[in-house]
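Sequence in, structure out. Go.
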Amino acid sequence: MEEEKTELVIAINVRCLTCICLCWLELEGLRAEEMEQIDAVNLVATHVHRWRLRDRSGTLPAGRIVLTVTVDENQWWRFECWSEEDMHYITGTEWSRFVQPRIGARLTLYGQQDGENFHRLEAPLLSAVAWLKKNVVFFSNA
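Output:
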C-alpha cells in the first residue's frame, strides 16, 4: 500500500511540475517572439569550453567584447566574446560555470532591446523530465 501511495504522489508531482513548466514556457515563448534571435544551440559537453555561433541578427560587434546577459533580470553573467570573420565565440570561466548545469538544455541568445545594454538568454537548467530522472529517487520493493 505504501508503494502505491509513493507512486501516486510522484505521479501527481510530475503532472504539476509539467503543467508549471508548460505555463512558464508559454509565457517565455510570448516574450521571446518579440526579441531578435542571435543564435540557438542544444548544449553538449563541448560547449563548456566555448560556443561557436553565427550572429543571425548582425547585432554583435566585431572584435573582443564582454557580453552581459540575463535570463530573468535577477541573475547576470558576463561572458568573454570574440569574433573571427563571420563567427563569434563565447568562452571563459564564467561561461563554463553557466553551461555545466545546463548540458542537454536548449540555449537561445537574443539581441539587445532598445535602451538596454545587455542581451537576454533563454536557458532552462534542464527539462522537467531530465530533472526528475536526475534528482528523484524511485523506490521499489522489488
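Check: The beta strands are 37-42, 50-53, 64-70, 76-84, 87-91, 106-110, 119-122. The chain has one domain: 2-135.
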